Amino acid sequence: MKIVIAGGTGYLGELLTEFYKKRKENQIYILTRRQKLNVENVNYIQWDGKTKGYWTTLLESTDVLINLTGKSVNCKYTQKNKEEIYQSRLQSTALLCEVVQELVFPPKVFIQSSSATIYRHSEKKLMTENNGETGIDFSMDVCKKWEQIFNNYELPKTKKIITRTSIVLGNKGGAFPIMKRMTQFGLGGKQGKGNQFISWITEEDYIKAIDFLIDKEEGIYNVCVPNPIKNKVFQKELRKKLKIPFGLNAPKWMLKIGAIFIGTETELLLKSRNVYPEKLLGLGFKFNTKEFKEFTMEC
To answer: Is residue 255 in a domain?
Structure first.
């Protein structure tokens, strides 16, 4: 297969690259702002996510185009950061769609990344693709506009898939190493009231889900396990895995202070993401890990 991954030097992009490069018949092209040397069947192509360039010719006759581009939301929501979060997603998505429209032989499949945080805070209702409810705040608005841009473009020769991905748990990057460090420092108690749900998926199942969706029908898919876990239960299980006997609880006011020092937002910890992968399950997808207690991690 010929695979192009925009934003492929980030955490999720590197997971997918490592998976697909093992099949030597695959040719992988990474669109990135960072210059890197090519390695085996992986080629790094510089782009800025804003303007067309010689990279556009690489999209001709592509089997799969995956767009993961976007500034990390793990930051303070200053006006400058908010604008960068919006523009890094909206500009790159619009640019890719515009280029795909112009190609003679466009990608067969276009997988557009989104986030499970598009759904409103919920401690009771499970949010599925068909009955999930969105609300109005910064993070939800980012996701809605991100998807709106993608949906605004007619790509008749290309199958369009949106993946609303939850927290990806693994030892190679993302949020989980930070969660582990906090617990190891004695801060592994419940956060806030602890009733908020965490929707998650392992690195292995994330890769497996993306690969699974390539030959499935187009549409929106929640990419998460079918068993979201309450924050207080998650923290208890994490302490058990790390063999940490206790963990201080962190009330909301303490998290606000801590967020200032580490340069992030409390929403990432306090919002209840109660999300269910109804469509993935309906297509017969099998998770290797469904429960957090089954998750194997490096200590």
So the answer is: no
H helix or E strand, kind and range, residue 160: strand 159-165
Total domains, the chain: 1
| Predicted pLDDT of residue 262 | 64
Give the integer Cα–Cα distance in Å for 258 and 265: 9
Q: Indicate the pTM of the whole model.
A: 0.94
pLDDT digit string, tens, across residues 129-185: 999 999 889 999 999 999 999 999 999 999 999 999 999 998 777 778 878 888 888
Which domain range does residue 60 map to?
Answer: 2-169+200-226+273-289
- Is a pLDDT exceeding 90 seen at residue 105? yes
Q: How confident is the model at residue 259 (pLDDT cuts 50, 70, 90)?
A: low
Residue range 254-276: mean pLDDT, rounded: 78
CA dihedral 35, 11, 100, 106 (to 10 degrees): 100
DSSP 104-116: SS--SEEEEEEEG
Domain containing residue 101: CATH number: 3.40.50.720
Query: How high is the pLDDT of residue 253?
Result: 77
Which of these ranges, 34-43, 71-80, 101-110, has the smallest mean pLDDT?
71-80
Residue 248 lies in a domain: no
Residues near 286 by beta carbon (within 8 Å), at least 6 away in sequence: none
